[in-house]
Amino acid sequence: MAEKVNPYKDSDASKKKQVTQMFDTISNEYDGLNRVISFGIDVKWRNKVVEMVAKTKPENILDIATGTGDLAISLTSTNAKEIIGLDISDGMLEVGRKKINSKNLDGIISMVIGDSEDLPFEDNTFDAITVAFGVRNFEHLEKGLAEILRVLKPNGIFVILETSVPTNPIYKAGYNVHTKLIMPTIGKLFSKDKVAYNYLSESASLFPYGEALNNILRKIGFINVIDLPQTMGVATIYSASKA
Question: How far does CA 123 lie from the centroid of its chain?
């Protein structure tokens, strides 16, 4: 079970509302700060997700917690006919819409505001579903994953890209310095929301990863679950399917 971490500890609002508020606030600065904090290596991780999805030759793809649409845009290289990017933050989606329009991808990608725990789609709709750095923001992880399973087609592919914690003690020490000191400091210096990057750091360190997340996916009903640690384990790609 994922430990509950909320962005604003002095707020009585639900995690969902707090996460929406946080991303609406930082939407215009998110892409730039994210590249700085991750040293740009998150682009490489997303490309690996795209490669995995492309092998299945999907006709349609749902990218949940799409944010400003980076992964959705990259997924156009799979030659899918339809890509839907879904997010609870309209601020993030609006940034994404501008990027999509500038690349003339409006005919392929549509950006939809929606809740990952109550997806506005019929059962067995999508050939592929992706979530990049979003599952740890779900208010109820298992409910969100069950919704994903519901709308995924049988034999469809589900791919998660999420932060994780290195198991090697040396790498783990470096990871802790980066996430607990450097990342929040950069956020405080350059972000409109001074607590957002504290939340992103804390939620990353407490979220289940590796076999712990594999077991949650299996419990929900996913099959063929595998995890692929990236860059010394600071992120992990998970792949699963539906019977």
Answer: 22
